[in-house]
Amino acid sequence: MFSWTWLQTQLTEVTMISTFIRLFLAVLFGGTIGMERRYRRRAAGMRTHALVCMGAALVMLTNQYIFTFLGASDPTRLGAQVISGIGFLGVGTIVVDRYRQVRGLTTAAGLWSCACMGLALGIGFYTGAICAWLFILITISALNKLETTVLGKSRGMVIYAEFQVYSDINRLVALAGEDGIVVIRLEVIEPHGYSGEEDTRSAAIITLTLPKNLAHADAIKRLGACPGLLALEEI
Asked: What SS3 class is residue 94?
């Protein structure tokens, strides 16, 4: 007969109902976080996050089962291996792009968080898992917009610029100085699609500090008027 005590037992003990609920919630929670990553065209999407979270939950369920029915002395041993072992997936999502910028750190952290959330679901710590799910979603979605807004108003700026010849870099630096833009760092690299010695193009990644009254979009517009400039974008 249905009662609160019966429901509590079903949710905390290793039963068919609790197993289904925990694994279902792990797939649901992990999948929704992965959906946000896929929306932003990241390497690890909905299925990856759902499988990681569900696998971690299954590990903890197995741990609880072994401890309950076989009398093992350490009910946390398998979970500890998940926390350290999930790193192999996270490392696979971290890459250095063509602008020499590190990408994938948020996705890697999200996968690790999903694994931890799955462990909480697997052991029946529903309150912790639900709170973690909400905070992870807020961190990777709402805080992403806040971060973009803050960076858009900051005085620091990094650009990728491509030129017809190497000497055109000096023109861009001179033009930046005329507008009160300070060049902090300049790294010359091979341009995209570089075709060998006969290719006279040059490219650079430039770190700038803008004056207080100059927005990022305006800086791009002004620097884009530099003679010999083939491509310019903020990174």
From this structure: coil
Q: What is the pLDDT of residues 72-92, one digit of tens each?
A: 667 778 888 888 888 777 777
- Cα 74 from chain centre: 33
pTM of the model: 0.71
Give all domains of the chain, ordered by start, each with its CATH number. 4-151 (no CATH), 154-234 (3.30.70.260)
The beta-carbon contacts of 11-15 under 8 Å, at least 24 apart in sequence, are 11/124, 11/126, 12/124, 13/68, 14/61, 14/64, 14/65, 14/68, 14/69
Those residues whose C-beta lies under 8 Å from the C-beta of residue 96, and which sit 6 or more positions away, are 102, 103
Rounded-to-integer distance, Cα 169 and Cα 227, Å = 10
Which H helix or E strand runs over 83? helix 77-85
Selected residue with higher pLDDT from 151 and 17 = 17
Q: What is the DSSP string of 12-32?
A: HS--HHHHHHHHHHHHHHHHH
Q: Which long-range contacts (CB under 8 A, 24 or more apart) does 128-136 make?
A: 129/25, 129/29, 133/29, 133/32, 133/33, 136/33, 136/110
What one-character DSSP code corresponds to residue 191?
P
In the numeric block, the tokens 């996270």 are attached to 90
| The one-letter amino acid at 169 | I
